[in-house]
Amino acid sequence: MPQRRAFLDWVGVRPGMRVLELGCASGAFTFEGGLAERVGPNGQVIAVDPARSMLARAETRRSQLGYNWVSFLQGRAEDLPFADESFDAVVGVAFLHFTDMPRALKEMRRVTRSGGFVGCFNPVSFQQENPFLEHSFLREWFAPLQKLALSRHEDRPRDFLSSPDVIHRHFAEAGLVDIRRTLLESRNLFPEPAKVLDIYIRGVGLFQEELATIPWKAREDLIAELEANGRIVCSKYPESERVVLFPQVMISGVVRR
Ligand SMILES: C[S@@+](CC[C@H](N)C(=O)[O-])C[C@H]1O[C@@H](n2cnc3c(N)ncnc32)[C@H](O)[C@@H]1O
């Protein structure tokens, strides 16, 4: 979790703040990422996610830790159940790409007090300097997705992640000011096929836009094909070579009214 902790410092969360966390899932940023500890008992963390199962896991951990300044709530970034200017800061890790970004950022700004900030740490598009499928092991593994893209006369699968420039523009259009951002890369290992599908296809939803172009049965067949390909690729390339640098952005903007 060192990058989540680095984000916490970079974005400027301080003890005693009232912080809203979005897309908290089971609490990777809230707990291991250090958000709850940083804010501490003189502040408050409200962490929101649409997935009830994730929130239940997060709540179990919260009560084991006894962090009574942290609470979890079901909700979506686009429609936040809070009054205007309720928080000093609204932050989140790896959730923005799942949202309707313009609506989500406007809501995040609305619930932040004047002088407070909105900050996100999010994966960004591979199609910039670091094309995902240039790694030969991934080209072989994800060949069925490439074939699908070619059948639609596109040169590569749509990855649906936005570029840092597009995210920056959405921050500005939502009315956030003093926007600053920094790019970094996280080292991601591609372990056994079932885990890769769980993490990248079902979890991160890396190619969900591409997969959404085909009917459900064809999608399931394609995922099965990816799993079979994965077994061949994993027997061919050692684990040390099955590594991809994922581009990420830390971005924040200030609220002024
Ligand atoms: C990859 S997980 C992020 C996990 C966590 N923040 C972390 O630090 O690892 C993405 C989360 O975003 C949530 N999500 C999806 N759509 C959302 C929305 N519209 N608003 C807020 N969260 C959303 C998902 O339920 C999921 O738990």
Supply database-style keywords:
257 residues, alpha/beta, Rossmann fold, seven-stranded mixed sheet, 11 helices, globular, binds S-adenosylmethionine
Q: Can you walk through the features of this model?
A:
The chain is of the alpha/beta class and 257 residues long. The chain folds into two domains: 2-123, Vaccinia Virus protein VP39 (Rossmann fold), CATH 3.40.50.150; 132-156 and 191-241, no CATH class. The chain is 41% helix and 23% strand. The chain contains eleven helices and seven strands. It has helices spanning 2-11, 28-32, 35-39, 52-65, 101-110, 136-141, 143-151, 164-173, 193-203, 208-211, 216-236; strands spanning 18-22, 44-49, 70-74, 87-93, 112-123, 177-189, 243-254. A seven-stranded mixed beta sheet has the order 3-2-1-4-5-7-6, with helices on both faces. Strand 2 (44-49), helix 4 and strand 3 form a beta-alpha-beta unit. The longest helix is centred in the C-terminal third of the chain and has 21 residues, at 216-236. The radius of gyration is 19 Å and the shape is globular. The two termini are 35 Å apart. The model has no long low-confidence stretch (mean pLDDT 93). S-adenosylmethionine is lined by residues 4, 22-25, 28-29, 33, 49-51, 54, 76-78, 93-95, 98-99, 204.
For the largest beta sheet, what order do the strands appear in spatially? 3-2-1-4-5-7-6
CATH class of the largest domain: Alpha Beta
So how many helices? 11
CATH topology of the largest domain: Rossmann fold
Structural class: alpha/beta
Radius of gyration from CA coordinates:
19 Å
Under the CATH scheme, the architecture of the largest domain is 3-Layer(aba) Sandwich
The CATH superfamily of the largest domain is identified as Vaccinia Virus protein VP39
Total beta strands: 7
End-to-end span in angstroms? 35 Å
Tell me the helix content: 40-55%
Q: pLDDT below 50 for ≥5 consecutive residues: which ranges? A: none
Whole-number tally of structural domains: 2
Strand content: 15-25%
Order of helices and strands: HEHHEHEEHEHHHEHHHE
